[in-house]
Amino acid sequence: MAGSPPSRNRTKPFTPTRQWWKSATVYQIYPISFFDSNGDGVGDLNGITAKLDYLKALGVDVIWLSPIYKSPLADMGYDISDYVSIDERYGTLEDWERLLEETHARGMKLIMDLVVNHTSDEHEWFVESKSNKDTKANPKRDWYIWRPPRYDEQGNRPAWEYDEGTDEYYLHLFVTKQPDLNWENPEVREAVWKLMRFWLDKGCDGFRMDVINHISKVEGLPDAPIIIPTLPYQPGNDFYINGPKVHDYIKEMNEKVLSRYKNIMTVGEAPITHIPATLAEYVLPQNKELDMVFQFELIDIDAQGGMEAESPILWKPWRLQDMKDIVTKWQSYSREDGFWNSIFIENHDNSRSVSRFGDDSSKWRALSAKLLCISQITQSGTLYVYQGQEIGMKNAPKSWSLEEYKDVATINFWNQTLEKRKKTTGKSEEEIDMSDIMEGCQRKARDHGRLPIQWDSSPHAGFTTGTPWMRVNEDDWNVDSQINDPDSVYSFWQRALDVRKQNDSLIYGDFKPVLLDHPTIFAYTRTLEGGTSALVVMNFSTQSVSINEEVKRMKGAKLLLSNYPVKATGDQAWEVPTVLRGYEGRVYLRGECCGADACGCKGIQKSFRDSRIDTLIVFAFRLKFARKTVP
Ligand code: GLC
């Protein structure tokens, strides 16, 4: 557990303070691909409003809207040209207000994407900034990060972008159309606080904060050392990730904005860092910064070259052991001090989890999508579900050519690699083998998560009556065919979210791995103070696997959820498997505290002192289960 101590050794399970956003299920909407209400091929706000009942029925508590602000869409809206107006492709401010009202009317909340590490180069702040380099005459010059030209001995230009008009370069950590804001400038920070207040005053319920750990840059903006000589530009992570003033800035944001609004939630996107202690700085309640962050250690599990990779598209096989270690590390981290996780396995920057961590062949697709659902709903943290995950949407077919891929990151990486290969081999474009890059795109391009949602079996899967901005996957999986099918992935998610909501141990319980060294089984317990304990067993392979004695002796426990049909025998005794079939997963509840002296809770707690599962199972026999099993 690099650089960070696990939770202290305890004799009793610890239950964190309960908060509404901890038990919430957040559903991420990538608006352009969700639902098109007006036939222009682009998803829109009215399309989201039209589907609110669908989301409510699924069990969603909070909607996170990826950016819908005015934008040239160079990075699909993560390049904002006006923070306080809606891009006309998505609708109007009135449409947004109606969406908010209808969301609230259904008892759900709405959080917005806050993208303030950078703006679009078409934002009026940047247009003004670029207009004149004289900081006295141009008060916005210093809102971005400008430097005069500087070339090395070979005459190489910097990685920054050159602006002819003022003969200076500006810093952009992402594409050239996304200049970085200068957070050192207090006026910039005030402008950010103002736009945050604008949305909060309108009633939005919080923010997901884009690359928030990038906002503070190391003083002097030094050159990155050359660590990958074949690359024209070097990774400069150390110079801007979790930079020297980032916590000052977020504390100021909390003090001046967040703390002034009740019942909001915040989640910061914090890529690159895998060290819990570093990310805990953003999250621990005494620091008064954010409620939680997205950390990407699990998502980086199949990235070739790790965090310094040329592109996350370059794929390497992932190992279950690594997944188990990563989950265990974060689940166990600093709970008593208030560290809180965000649980997710998909978003708009990633390919589909069933294709990536499951098996999307027709035989295993539904089972492995359900297994992944179990892995998500049984972890401690706020749960995030990405649009389409609930119906087991998979990656685009391998037969699709590069033209179907629209993401700027995919296209740029392809072109850069092609250029590099042309230079190093002297071959023509046609002669160069790009099959490895194509394979990476097929497995991991961000495009897969951005395919339009498949609603029904009509043309373009009912996403639009026009021409979709991006091709729709042609498989016959869609919402309409799943919604009334009790065996579908959708129905499973719906049940699973309810099981999570009904069982606090799955949200707040202490995490303890079981069978940590088993090559294909991922298993753990989740235990609340007072004794209630869930056991989760998941087989991450297509092969049947005998399960260890400890797990077999779960007789008498209540089965909460299973992705295979399970027959009840007798009144309450569910078959306990001696073998887990391919991609089989189960969740058991092992006991509830009835509060009476004689109920056995003391015994349960004693068993934690022993920390031996078999002791716990013996005591579990003596317990009465308050609820009927509804797997
Ligand atoms: C975040 C977004 C991603 C975007 C990048 C730059 O990582 O999730 O989509 O490209 O920031 O804004």
Automatic annotation (TrEMBL):
**What are the record keywords, sorted?**
Glycosidase, Hydrolase, Maltose metabolism
Any one GO BP annotation for this protein: sucrose catabolic process
Identify its protein family. Answer: Belongs to the glycosyl hydrolase 13 family.
State what protein this is by name: Glycosyl hydrolase family 13 catalytic domain-containing protein
- What GO molecular function terms would the record report? alpha-amylase activity; glucan 1,4-alpha-maltotriohydrolase activity; oligo-1,6-glucosidase activity; sucrose alpha-glucosidase activity
User: Which domain of life, per UniProt?
Assistant: Eukaryota
* Pfam families assigned to the protein according to its UniProt record, in alphabetical order: Alpha-amylase, Malt_amylase_C
* The keyword Metal-binding is assigned to this record: no
Gene3D superfamilies recorded: Glycosidases, Golgi alpha-mannosidase II, Oligo-1,6-glucosidase, Domain 2
Has keyword Oxidoreductase? Answer: no
Q: Which PANTHER family match?
A: ALPHA-AMYLASE FAMILY MEMBER, NEUTRAL AND BASIC AMINO ACID TRANSPORT PROTEIN RBAT
Transmembrane annotation, as ranges: none
| Ranges for domain Glycosyl hydrolase family 13 catalytic | 28-450
